[in-house]
Write a structure and sequence with these properties.
alpha/beta, AMP-bd_C_sf, AMP-dep_synth/lig_dom, 556 residues, five-stranded parallel sheet, acid-thiol ligase activity, ATP-dep_AMP-bd_enzyme, binds 5'-O-[(R)-(benzoyloxy)(hydroxy)phosphoryl]adenosine, 26 strands, Rossmann fold, Triostin synthetase I, Luciferase, domain 3
Amino acid sequence: MSFEGFVPWPEDLAHAYRAAGVWPGRTMGSYLWEWAETRGDRVAVVDGTTRLTYRDLAVRADALAVGLAGRGLERGDTVLVQLPNTWEFVVVTAALLRLGVVPTMMLPPHRDHELTAIGRHVGARALVVPGTWRGFDHQELAFRVAAALPGPAEVLVVGDDVAGGAVDVRALLATDGDTDGAVEERRRWLDEHGPAPSDIAVFLLSGGTTGVPKVISRTHDDYLFNIVHCARACAFGEDTVYLAVLPAGHNFPLASPGLLGALHAGGRVVLSASPRPEPVFAAIEAERVTATSAVPAVVLKWMDAAATLKPDLSSLRYLHVGGSMLAPDIAERMARTLDCRLQQVYGMAEGLVCYTPPDASDEVAFGTQGPPVSAFDELLIVDEDGTPVPPGGTGELLTRGPGTPRGYYGVPDQNRLSFTEDGWFRTGDLVRLTPEGHAVVCGRVKDLINRGGEKISAGEVETLIQELPEVAEVAAVPAPDPVYGERVCVFVRFHGGCSLSLAEISRLLTERGLAAFKIPERLEVLTALPHTAVGKADKKALKALLADRNPLPRAA
Ligand code: OOB
């Protein structure tokens, strides 16, 4: 493996986890053919009218993997994957896992700013993008980003109008007319050239509190651990029909347990390209979906729409809700309105995932975020000095365990802040534990804005706004919002004689290639920002100011 910024697992721990079977000691791609042999004709993936069996998935993933190898990609490379929820997302991911080329999971709204910064950080060798998606030309974006990367990078397109110079992914994964011999030969070649369990399987993006998002390297070992335990915590099995609604590059719909968990359990994955109520309800009805997961902001929209659309949700047994704060009364209303078991989830791409059990009492299901999915996960609640708080007290949650890696990729200075010397990850979340060991998330100490589950680093937005010549000082804080929970509000002090409107700031940040969900939706102009003793913008004071301004001016 050639990933220099990778923080490996301590040898002794890795050895102990493998010896005890905590880590299965396998790669994720190694399951594909096992599944194809035991459940070959069963449908694995549904996307509209496209249905792939477990065997189709293995055959196509192998074809694509070998095709990509033919284009020069090899084990230890990484590519940026920016695909919507389509069946090709699953095949591309499976192919990359098989080949040992690490998918760096980007999100469809990401633009030049995120793709270029992350692509440089991980040393991306290619980008996998849709052609045009929601009216936006991702192919053109990918060519721009590829040109801005230091090394050569290919543009791989999943779409109809593949430009000259780009690689047509659909052509690579087509297998029509392949003989059994060809399929077998590809399988053998990939078995020999694929990754090891300790290799990085995927790169995930962290909500991050500094600059652009931090990159989390997940090995086959530690990612499989999460997938298996989350699938167990959600009672996934062969009868599971899981609907992937949130962007599949997020850890939540991808692997907690998400689509990988559903496949691992022998179930079926249905993909919805949009979280809007109409397509989601239609997919639940048509495919008799049994489980899905979403952030509270999305479920609130489903609840509103259910009143008028009156969908048949009788197949839906479990709804996993997490990613941002959820009040107990709303949790209860969600379960009643959609008539299913609510499983709250508190998780993070950095590893730890907590789930309320499927058969939890109402008190637990509505009032807590549940215990960690595995008994091997350790939780510690500390105060501001790092001292453990008394049982039941609230403080910052530190965690460690076989599914929580020991460092972000390629940021040693940040790692000294985010991880303790003995391997605890500082979540930045304020949590208390019930006597039964269930987590209750109470807030956070990290400087980010959680807009309906999308994490936005305040620092990233501030850095871009600070670069505008009119701006003397800026601080981004969460503004409370009834649907999204929070939206980005910026407090700005302009240089004398200068000013910008919210619309102008929005346009300038869009021009700089910032993803739309990070663009501030509220602007508060101050002649002086309050400061803390160390001279930083005092965000506590700013949030209080925001709460005092009633009603708040709303973004256009
Ligand atoms: C999930 O993952 P990320 O990496 O996008 O965000 C993690 C952060 C947590 O540190 C916490 O601040 C927040 O999102 N969060 C919650 C929460 N679940 C996550 N805050 C309050 N209540 C909750 N239930 O968001 C994620 C990953 C896997 C499964 C589920 C969510």
